[in-house]
Amino acid sequence: MNLPKVYLASASPRRKELLTQIGVNFSVLSIAVDESVKSGENPSDYVERIALAKARAGWDILQTDFRPVIGADTAVVLPTQQILGKPESLDQARDFLGQLSGIQHQVLSAVAIVWQQQYWLSLQISDVRFKTLTNTEIDWYLATGEGKDKAGGYAVQGLAAMFIENISGSYSGVMGLPLFETRQLLQQVTNLNEQ
Q1: Distance CA 175, CA 192 (A)
Q2: Which positions are catalytic residues (predicted)?
Q3: Helix (H) or strand (E) holding 187
């Protein structure tokens, strides 16, 4: 499959690793967007809006090399529809893990591609069930620092895998970039480019 060379509007090591895994030739763009949740915004609208904002921010800084730009966003969502972002403190990370303990939550991952005046957008939703965590387990995990800069305060590809009883959906989506959907969008861009 001949996918186009793209830009990734993200500094996330996980997203870089995932794109590399499927053989995408990419360069990283450093972008900054406001990731605040708007009042009354539902989780799927939120992650799609942020993924598209990242891709558009990347496109906007390009001057001459107009390759497609990928943006992505991931949110951990409680059954109450509350979005758990990246914890801002150790106490908040402890609170997040306590709320995830013993329940099934959703992980929403959106991927967007902007190229010329067009955009493509896809949303992937996975169900993740955590075991009931003891305070000792939560304290141990927090001491590792692994979940510090991750949505929901945990990393599925790391030590937190020991807490996960079941995943229904996309493992790569829970990691931060749904590869099946990403490939589909890249193929659409490639097909358009070849017309």
Answers
A1: 29
A2: 73
A3: helix 179-193
Q: State how far the Cα of 139 lies from the Cα of 54, in Å rounded to an integer.
A: 34
Cβ atoms of residues 127 and 152 within 8 Å: no
Question: Which pTM was predicted?
Answer: 0.91
Per DSSP, the three-state class of 108 is strand
Active site residue 73: yes
Q: Which amino acid is present at 52?
A: L
Nearest Cα residue to 29 out of 86, 71, 64, 75? 71
Q: Looking at domain 6-193, does it have CATH number 3.40.30.10?
A: no
pLDDT, tens digit, 9 for 90 and up, residues 91-108: 999 999 999 999 999 999
pLDDT tens per residue, range 149-185: 899 999 999 999 999 999 999 999 999 999 999 999 9
Catalytic residue among 73, 91, 127, 149: 73
